[in-house]
Amino acid sequence: MASMLTRGASRLSRQRHMGWICAFGMSAVRGFAATSDDAKPDEGGCEPTFKGAYCESVAVELGTERTPVRVGFETGRVARLTDGAIVASMGDSRVICAAVCSRDENLEAGFFPLQVDYRERHSAFGKIPPTFTRREGAPKDREVLAMRVVDRAIRPLFPKSFSRDTSVQAIVLATDQSQDPAVLAVNGASAALSVSSIPWNGPVGAVRVSVLGDGNEIILNPSDKDVEASKLTLFYAGNEDRTLMIEAQAGTADEGGVPESVVASALRAAHEAAKLLIEPQRRLQRAIGKEKLDPVQQTPEQAKLRHDVFDRSSEKLRALYKEEIQCKHTRGKRMAELKDEIVNSMTEEGMSFTNNEVEQAFFWVSSRVMRDMIFEDKKRLDGRGIRELRQLGAQSNVLPVVHGSSIFERGNTQALATVTIGKLIDAQKLDAPVGPDERRMMLHYSFPSFSINETPRRGGLSRREIGHGALAEKSLAGIIPAAKEWPFAVRINAETMESNGSSSMAAVCSGSLALMDAGVPIKEHVGAISVGLVMDEDEQTGKVTRYELLSDIMGLEDVLGDMDFKIAGTRSGITGIQLDCKPAGIPLDILIEAMDVASIARSAVIDEMDRAISKPRSRDDSDDGAQFTTVRMDRSLIGRLIGPKGDTIRELERTTGAKVSIHEEDDAGVDDQCTLGIFAGTRPGLDAALEKIQLIAWVPKEGDVVRAKVVNQLAYGWFLRLPNEQDGLLHVSEYSHTRKVDPLKDDIFQIGEEVLVKIKDVSDGRVGLSVKALSPAPEGTEVGRRRPRAGAGFERNEDGSLKRPLRRLKD
């Protein structure tokens, strides 16, 4: 206990010495700082949210309107017990980011034990959570994706020898809903690590950019409106010299992917914008940053162990690699046996080491030997050249019953996809501070343990599955026609059957194939490939001395290499990007070169996909499987289609088995038509639904003979519902030429009974019906209505019908 008190007092003293503790309500300890000259900020700087905090800021502009705001980083007033805490601000948005590490090294950790958490409080945008408990529950997909983005932006910059359990947490406290708070979270996490005692080679800057028009207009910090109108939106993080993280979504249904040259320009603009956010973090670090902890350095014994493992295993590993083993498990088993052989030999010689130490040494040797083979022999572990793809395979229409299905394989990576089409109402409703209100196209990615020959682990959906599914979904979403042209929701299930690298890219390919198999009107396939990298750097300067880009990396190349650059797109360009890297960033020029490498590989993938199915499957000539079509309907008839309380459309769907989506365009004042999407599981169901919809759109004309349903009866006649869901009146005088009837006393029609009638007149939306007009009047019968006595009622025509407009008879 005494030691704990001593440590606490020492820490408190250090914080006071550094100016972190100040009286509540006092002005900032050091005031708020000016911004960098490069940013050309306004003169006032950024006032901290919490009085007493130290703040640094930089001026930026938002969206197409170029609204000037400041991005601020403040510390020292809240969350002072953390190793480092920052309240990051942009406009009226606030995100608190805190970094904490454990006191002891985790020597058994096989990889750096970093945990990232990101949460969006509903109170931040003025809402009470709609959950049963009225509080936030498990993280939503959007929050999980933000966690992954933050992780990938900061993880490569931790020292390789640092192994303390480390946590970075971000909570959105307030948002003006003009910008994605996840961008602010990356910058805030960077600043929190920079001012903390945790060893970290930052800071980094993160921005979002969008490309509008023909690709010449690049917008920094786009609004939701800008993103919706853009051809490309990317989320970028990097330091002064290198790129650390990229997420991008691009493409349109009409034009396909975005050219690599446009993406390259957007990346360069994003890099320059991200650099502006680094300097205020450096000023903050210089002013009040804590002294960094010293990571555990490699001991002479550990260095000797690495050299011993290299000497004992390098040649054997090279020989094993040169066997060009194609099976992932066979190669893995042989490598494990070799490692055990090395461990046994060193144990017999009395050498002392831990399992983790020998694992790390063997990993380093495996990577080094692989790199040397690639650099020197231009050969990879399975015998391929550096630009050679694994064997490809694609097949569509592989499953019965489902709306669309396919299987795609690349070497030992195999993905099975199914497509389900539904109504627009089936789209997923979203509840987030920014972004769209719903997802009309959903892709759900699954990674069952059998795909890598492992027993299942307990637990729900993993962050990896959510992240890979989101990447595949973004890669395909852009090519789906707009709701105006194709008013349906669509769900893709991508099931990983085998995995040996880039299963998310296989999900994209199988998803594209299944979309065409289901008849979704996409214009071309989206292919996807992952480009890897092996890169040697000068230990003193950090400059790249040599590198090779690898097309279609397999699992072991991903593990032992430096980069997994996933790129999806059509023949015309890119639709989705995700970058993961292990070094402290990748030079941007290498990434731009990698996009060209991916373009060539992607074309080969799409060639194979086209051989399986090259255009959306037509359902016109087939009675099997899902059927759908679109029709246009006058906007004024939509209420009649829906019916009272939705009864009409529900009855249509119940009797036909079809589903009907109604898409009313935003340009309602210009176009008096709207689009209906009709989907059915069978051709007869679709035909029946179309027939009913055509009847609803039917306009009654005088003389038409139709069947109508009795819906009400009164003393003067019956109201009948016509096929177009419009009601008409069958007057008692129109029932019979000779017989006088009383609907309330005579048992003539039952409610719900269908009656054959003739339309006698249509006037001002009212429809007059007749039964007696279906047959000629008996000879001698007076035709027409009895004329009223003079001076009574309303003026009438010669045939006895009322004149319009109504005028009373004069006395």
The gist of it:
The chain is an alpha+beta fold.
- Computed Rg: 35 Å
The separation of the N and C termini measures 112 Å
How many helices?
16
Average pLDDT reading = 86
Bin the strand percentage: 25-35%
Q: Uncertain runs with pLDDT below 50, 5 residues or more?
A: 1-44, 784-792
Q: Tell me about the biggest sheet?
A: 9 strands, antiparallel
What's the helical proportion of residues? 25-40%
Choose one word for the global shape. Answer: elongated
**Structural category:** alpha+beta
Number of E-state strands: 30
Provide structural commentary.
With about 800 residues, the chain is α+β, with helices and mostly antiparallel strands. The protein is about 30% helix and about 25% strand. Helix 2 packs parallel to helix 3, helix 2 (about 140-155) crosses helix 10 and helix 7 (about 300-320) packs across helix 9 (about 355-375). The radius of gyration is 35 Å and the shape is elongated. The N and C termini lie far apart (about 110 Å).
